[in-house]
Amino acid sequence: MPRFLTALPLTSKLLAAGLTVAALLPAVAQADATLDKIKQRGKVSIGVLVNGSAFGSIDPSNQQLVGWNPELARALAKGLGVEVDLVQVQTATRVQFLISGKVDLLIASMELNPERAETLGYAPTPFYRVGGTAAVLKSSGIRQWEDLRGKTVCVSQGSSFAKPLANDYGATVQGYKGASESLLALKGGSCVAAVHDATLIHPLLRGNAEWANYAAPIATELLAANSVVWTRKGEADTIAAVDKVVRDWHRSGWLIETEKRLGITPPNPLLPELQAKFKAAP
Question: CA-CA distance, 39 to 182, in Å (whole number)?
């Protein structure tokens, strides 16, 4: 540091460096802003992805959002001591909803990866682990990811599976508004495979007469990663409060019970692993 700066008070040093105290304050205050607002209004707005599976769907009898993502969102609000406002989001727009402030948090089948972690904050304790799998015609001859090379594959817009499908396996990736549109394109012959979370594909194909001619033959999951609750970057207090709730879910076994109650199979091996970890923690 130049000698003339060492003799200056802190405020003068900041000014000399082209900074102001006022310019630094928003970055510090941001950590508390969201949690404070949630507590003040007594309600948290959570974006949830609803794709027609056990992880999120609409109950036709009352038009309520049901399934894994909505249930976790309601339980998270309860754990924070507030009411919940569920906001349905799409794969292509969920990040924008969070960054723009349309929602406070996301529980939207969005797995942790380095690119997302650069842009968003997240509660570090995961509540699930999932990767992608491909739905294909049983007669397609596709048995492994490499078999997709040079073929058109349908995904949702904004899907994290698009990059490895194109770069690692040489597929021609076609994005659609959501999983429903992607799967409809598969049935219409616009692509040879539709790649989505295994938690969507496997229940869809299991015992569903409409999908009797389709299978998910690729044994390995693409980009298997942890599912987390997402926040905006730098919201440290919100992250800490959310993470405490998620740890309590594991410790109590609530996530395992909810998975069973919703009929989600096969059971996710991450859940008993983390239950044992947090039950043993002091």
Answer: 39
Report domain extents, the chain: 22-127+228-280, 132-224
* pLDDT score at 44: 98
Give CA angle at 67 (65, 72), nearest 5°. Answer: 95
Instruction: Tell me the three state secondary structure of residue 260.
Output: helix
- Assign domain 22-127+228-280 to its CATH architecture: 3-Layer(aba) Sandwich (3.40)
218 vs 194: CA distance, rounded Å: 12
Closest CA to 92 of 108, 76, 113, 74: 108
Instruction: Render pLDDT for 10-45 as a digit per residue (tens, 0 to 9).
Output: 434 333 333 333 333 344 434 458 999 999 999 999
Q: Which residue has the higher pLDDT, 154 or 54?
A: 154
Beta strand extents in the chain (DSSP E only): 43-49, 57-58, 65-66, 83-89, 105-107, 120-122, 128-137, 152-156, 172-176, 193-197, 214-215, 222-227, 230-232
132-224: which CATH number, 3.40.190.10, 3.30.420.40, 3.40.50.620, 3.40.50.960?
Answer: 3.40.190.10
